[in-house]
Structure formats: C-alpha cells, structure tokens
Amino acid sequence: MVSDGGELVFTIKDLSCRTMLFVKEKPVRVFRDMLNVKATPGEDPELSCEITKPDATIKWLKNGRVIRVSPKYEIIQKDYLVKLIIHNAVIMDSGEYCCEADGIATRARLDVRDMQHMFAKELKDVQAEERGLVVLECETRRPAT
Predict the structure, then answer these.
(1) Which of 62, 83, 84, 98 would disulfide-bridge 48, Cβ 3.0–4.6 Å?
(2) Is this prediction's pTM over 0.85?
(3) Residue 136 contacts by C-beta under 8 Å, 6 or more apart in sequence?
(4) Hey, how many other C-beta atoms are within 10 angstroms of the C-beta on 108?
(5) Whole-angstrom distance, CA of residue 120 vs CA of residue 118
(6) 46-51/65-66 β-pairing
(7) pLDDT tens-digit map of 45-77
(8) pLDDT tens digits along 3-52
(9) DSSP state of 13
(10) Range of 53's domain?
(11) Which CATH number is 70's domain given?
C-alpha cells in the first residue's frame, strides 16, 4: 500500500541503519471493456466498464468532447463499476464514447436508430369473385412515415 511508504529504521543492539521506502501505486487497468450499444430513440442506453481502482478519477467523452453530468447524462461510479446513462436517446447521441480513468481508456460506439419498418401482421391470401370487393389489411410495428 502507498501508506506503507516512509522512513524505515533497522536496529540490532547498538547497530542501526535507515532507509526510505517508496511504494508506487499500481496503475489503473480496465478489467472489463465497454461494449458497443444499439438503441432506439426514447430509450436510456447505458455504457459501462469495470476498472481495477474504485477511487480513480473518471472522465467521459463523446467524439472527443468531455461529457458533464446533466439531465441528459447520468454518471455513476460504484466501486469498480463505471457507468454512463444517456437519457431519452436521440439519433444525434450516436457516436464514439470513451471512459478515461487515470490515463487509461476504453471506447465503444452508441448507435441510436429508428426501428426498421416491419410488419406485425402480414397480408393474407384472399379469394374474391370477379368484380367483387376485396379488402387487404396489414399492420406495421410503428407508424409509417
């Protein structure tokens, strides 16, 4: 431990010597890297990683710019877990996010995309008489634009 450093005195009977002990702190390492995340608008995506030093100084960046705590961004640091929550995601939140801790970094991409158009209910085969009325129905998972 760093607190173990200081002056040491060794004594045997009337013989003694002194020295200084310097304890170098282990550097922070990323224990678990961030993973890329996909989200749809309105969701609250989370980016997280684990580091080896619970009291490390953390800095979050998006596309190289520092992120500050705000209603949009929530930063949580609990023990070894470091987390960034992006509230009410929009497409403009897409990009590269970086978590820096005492000189080391891990990066991941956030990709915010509208849901693709998909059918919830597909068209069904219909039989009709010539000149008869035919009604075709289908349903999409989200409103068509």
Answers:
(1) 83
(2) no
(3) 123, 126
(4) 17
(5) 6
(6) unpaired
(7) 999 999 999 888 999 999 999 999 999 999 999
(8) 777 888 888 888 888 888 888 878 888 889 999 999 999 999 999 999 99
(9) T
(10) 30-112
(11) 2.60.40.10
Residue 14 lies in a domain: no
* Residue 13 domain-assigned (yes or no): no
What would the two tokens of residue 138 be? 């289908």
Could you tell me if 97 and 110 are in contact, meaning their C-beta atoms sit under 8 angstroms apart? Answer: yes
Tokens of 16: 């003694």
The string of pLDDT tens digits covering residues 80-137 is 999 999 999 999 999 999 999 988 999 999 999 987 766 777 778 888 888 888 888 8
The dihedral region occupied by 13, where left means phi > 0, alpha psi between -120 and 50, and beta the remainder, is: left
**Residue 42 located in a structural domain:** yes
DSSP assignments along 34-99, one per residue: ---EEE-TT---EEEEEES-TT--EEEEETTEE---SSSEEEEEETTEEEEEESS--GGG-EEEEE
Measured CA to CA, the distance from residue 48 to residue 83 in angstroms comes to: 4
